[in-house]
């Protein structure tokens, strides 16, 4: 035992630990930088870059690290690049780690829900802003365990640096054992040193995961829990500040409950639809769609759509599943491209110049923000790492340039209007479906858009939650005066809110007209059959 402890303190082996750490740090830092580049190349829109990155990954993942170290130390000098043993070993480890780290980064980036990317685009966020504000924060949280595992592998792989005579821990242990013939004690001490190093990496990983945990209690609550654990049976020590302990049962009940909405704004009697129609007819066109055609391969999704929506007009899109309603909305917001036809929003070609040439994603995002097109999705598409308030206030800061104070004030005002002021600090996963959709509607309305697109806003909700979301939309229609295009199957709601109904089937407009007329006496057999089927359900 004394001899074993002697080896643990021996400077000769401790120096080897230093070389091991140096090579590992060089390899991981270099591998991280190169991995980010490789991942960006594979995620790029440019196919050539993606092919080059994939070829690099195949080569360096398919050859042994020991050969790569020999190549960096012995082959590079033949072309005039002479490296020290430590530099060559660090370079080889970095070249080897890069493709593995790149795959970790890439897999976690593409693992972020694509709906959140669409939501960021609809809010006018540039690709860089979406990556920095939406994708990266969520990807980093999920990639920490894999990066921790890769760090441990890199530390153990550093032992292969002995092949180029780097005096790291394994080589020094081998040399010492060859001189003393005390193999067991020396390698046991060496193994314990490796265990301490890998254990330190594990501790760092755990700390980072705790710091990035969105559900982690605030520091004061953590301290209170720690003190209670230290003093079992002696009462609960007074917390530093009033802390409300989490009530799981109450949380669940709150999630499934229907939050009361604020009282509606007073209205002066029923709407005179004829007068409203005459007034809307004099407004400028908010959206103009002409001969829009879109197909996926040989399947026509939109086949010559013509649609004009006036400022302040509310249009309901009806039609069976697959009729092209969602695709039409995504085309209007330029989340989808198309083969033929034109779309103007606010008199401008969104996402293309006057000659029809597509603009870059960055310029298109800026146009969305300046034109003012909001969108509410079927699946809510809230940013999972942000609270309800931050989901609304964040885009106002990043896109509209509001200060944090003004953005938070606007977010709190809208949350109050949709009856969720008390849930401002809740993450999306702690909200019910109806609550999430109400936050999504508030987020879409926050920048003050001229046009609001709603894509089946209640289709992903349980029946008991549909009413609360429809009531929020009804309020917006009355209070905001936005031009709205709503894809829905809620016939009663369409009749109450919409000025006009447009019925689509197989990518074409079959029939359109005043909401009451279409719902009461449709002229086309397909419309009549659809309404009959929906009323029978």
TrEMBL record:
Its main location: membrane. Keywords: ATP-binding, Cell membrane, Membrane, Nucleotide-binding, Transmembrane, Transmembrane helix, Transport. The chain crosses the membrane at residues 20-43, 55-76, 183-208. Residues 17-205 form the ABC transmembrane type-1 domain. The keyword Hydrolase does not apply. It is found in: Cell inner membrane; Cell membrane. It is a multi-pass membrane protein; Peripheral membrane protein. Residues 287-531 form the ABC transporter domain. The keyword Iron does not apply. Belongs to the binding-protein-dependent transport system permease family. HisMQ subfamily. This is Amino acid ABC transporter permease/ATP-binding protein. It comes from Ancylobacter radicis. The lineage of its organism: Bacteria, Pseudomonadati, Pseudomonadota, Alphaproteobacteria, Hyphomicrobiales.
């Amino acid at each position: 035992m004394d001899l074993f402890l002697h080896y643990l303190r021996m400077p000769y082996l401790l120096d080897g630990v230093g070389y091991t750490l140096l090579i590992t740090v060089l390899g991981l830092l270099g591998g991280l930088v190169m991995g980010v580049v490789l991942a960006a190349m594979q995620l790029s829109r440019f196919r050539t870059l993606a092919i080059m990155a994939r070829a690099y990954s195949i080569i360096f993942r398919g050859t042994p690290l020991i050969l790569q170290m020999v190549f960096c130390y012995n082959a590079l000098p033949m072309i005039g690049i002479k490296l020290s043993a430590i530099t060559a070993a660090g370079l080889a480890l970095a070249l080897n780690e890069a493709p593995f780290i790149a795959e970790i980064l890439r897999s976690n980036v593409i693992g972020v829900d694509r709906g959140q990317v669409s939501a960021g685009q609809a809010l006018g966020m540039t690709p860089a802003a979406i990556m920095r504000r939406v994708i990266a924060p969520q990807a980093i949280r999920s990639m920490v365990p894999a990066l921790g595992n890769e760090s441990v592998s890199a530390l153990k792989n550093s032992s292969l640096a002995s092949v180029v005579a780097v005096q790291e821990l394994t080589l020094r242990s081998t040399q010492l054992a060859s001189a003393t013939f005390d193999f067991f004690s020396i390698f046991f001490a060496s193994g314990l040193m490796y265990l301490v190093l890998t254990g330190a990496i594990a501790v760092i990983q755990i700390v980072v995961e705790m710091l990035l945990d969105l559900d982690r209690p605030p520091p004061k609550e953590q301290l209170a829990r720690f003190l209670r654990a230290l003093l079992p049976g002696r009462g609960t020590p007074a917390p530093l500040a009033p802390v409300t302990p989490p009530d799981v049962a109450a949380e669940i009940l709150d999630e499934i409950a229907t939050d009361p909405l604020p009282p509606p704004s007073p209205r002066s009697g029923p709407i005179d639809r004829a007068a409203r129609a005459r007034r809307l007819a004099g407004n400028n066109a908010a959206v103009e769609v002409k001969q829009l055609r879109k197909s996926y391969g040989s399947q026509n999704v939109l086949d010559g759509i013509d649609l004009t929506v006036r400022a302040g007009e509310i249009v309901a899109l009806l039609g069976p599943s697959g009729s092209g309603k969602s695709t039409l909305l995504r085309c209007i917001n330029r989340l989808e491209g198309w083969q033929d036809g034109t779309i103007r929003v606010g008199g401008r070609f969104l996402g293309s110049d006057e000659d029809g040439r597509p603009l870059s994603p960055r310029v298109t995002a800026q146009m969305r923000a300046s034109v003012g097109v909001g969108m509410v999705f079927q699946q809510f598409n809230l940013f999972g790492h942000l609270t309800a308030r931050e989901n609304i206030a964040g885009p106002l800061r990043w896109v509209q340039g509001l200060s944090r104070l003004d953005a938070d004030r606007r977010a709190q005002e809208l949350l109050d209007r949709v009856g969720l002021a008390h849930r401002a600090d809740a993450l999306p996963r702690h909200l019910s479906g109806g609550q999430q959709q109400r936050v999504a509607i508030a987020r879409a309305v926050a920048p003050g858009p001229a046009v609001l697109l709603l894509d089946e806003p209640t289709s992903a909700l349980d029946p008991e939650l549909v009413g609360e979301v429809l009531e929020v939309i009804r309020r917006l229609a009355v209070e905001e005066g936005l031009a709205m295009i709503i894809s829905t199957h809620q016939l009663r709601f369409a009749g109450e809110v919409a000025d006009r109904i447009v019925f689509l089937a197989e990518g074409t407009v079959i029939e359109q007209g005043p909401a009451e007329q279409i719902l009461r006496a449709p002229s086309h057999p397909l419309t009549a059959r659809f309404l009959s089927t929906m009323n029978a359900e």
